Amino acid sequence: MEKQLLNIISTIRKPTSGTVYYKGQSFFDMNEEDKAKYRYQTLSFVFQDFNLISSMTIKENIELPLMMNHKELNKSKEELNEIVKDLQIENILNKYTVECSGGQLQRAAIARAIIAHSPIIICDEPTGNLDTKTAQEIMELLVEINKRGTTVILVTHDSYMASYSDRLLTIEVVQLRKKY
To answer: Which CATH superfamily is domain 2-15+25-162 in?
Structure first.
C-alpha cells in the first residue's frame, strides 16, 4: 500500500480516485514532459537497496543528479566535499559499490539525494538493511536534512525509526473477505 502511495507521489501511478496537487497543480493534468520535469526538479529518492550504479565510483554516483541536470561539476566540488564529510564517507569516494558496506552505500545514496537540492526526498525503507547503530545515524541525518528545510517522506515498518518524525501518518491495510 505504501509503495503505491510513493508511486502516486512520484507520478508513476495514478490514484484510483481523487487527485494529488503540488503547488496548486494536479500531477495528473501535466503532460509527460512536465511530469518528468517535476520528478527531476522536485524529488530525490533514497531506496532500501540503495540503487547505486555498480560500474560507477561512489563519487560518480553522488554526482549523477548534477550530470543529469547539466550542472557544472567543478562548481559543486565544495558542496560535495562538505556533504561527504558530514556523512563520513570522504574516504570511499573512489571506491565501487562492491567495496563498501551497507551503511556506506546508504550514506552515498543520501548524499546523492542531498546534492540534487530537491525540495522533497522520498525514503523507502532507508534503514531496512542496516544494523541498529547505522540505522539510527541515518535517521539522525534525515532529521537534520529536514531541519534545513527539505521535506522528507519516509516509509518504514519500524516504529522506532518512525518515532524520529515530527509528523507521523499510519497507513493500515485492511483486507476484506469475499462473501460466497
So the answer is: P-loop containing nucleotide triphosphate hydrolases (3.40.50.300)
